[in-house]
Amino acid sequence: MKRNWKTKGTLVLTGIFLLGSSLTVCAEDEVTPPGYHVYDVQEDEVSDAWYGIARGAYLQGGLCKLTHGATGYALCSGTTFAHRESDRVYVRVYLDWSDTGTGGWTTYDTYWTTIETKDSYANVTSGPFKIKRNKYHRARGAHSVTQDGYTEATTTCTDALYFD
Description:
Elements: H1 2-22, E1 29-31, E2 35-41, E3 45-52, E4 59-68, E5 73-98, E6 106-125, E7 129-130, E8 135-147, E9 150-157, E10 161-163
Parallel strand pairs: 1-9
Antiparallel strand pairs: 2-3, 3-4, 4-5, 5-6, 5-7, 5-8, 8-9, 8-10
């Protein structure tokens, strides 16, 4: 009797492993093409620009920027550039805050997104956004271009900017 249960248990486990290994995951092909970041830090503005270096790629570049607005307000923006008109050009910008500016980042529940179809450019701007005063803030961007089910994507992230 013990041997029978061991055999059945082994067969059940083998079946579970075989079933799990035979399931196919249906997802778009997504890659991060080679590129480089250029960070710019000014007194009232920080930005991260990513430039793709792959020839013939769909994703050309991405830009994320954070600027001081009126006292207690920030302005965020993001742009995604494609090499040519594509099925989908996407940009999303997140705003984070931190006490130190070097870690412990918390994302606001708000983000800004633009999706363009049959275009080579997507841009989003937050407008004046009320922020936590006496904290550091940064903007993060998610950029992608999709053509014929193939997606190229990258991210950007600005340096910390203090808002008093």
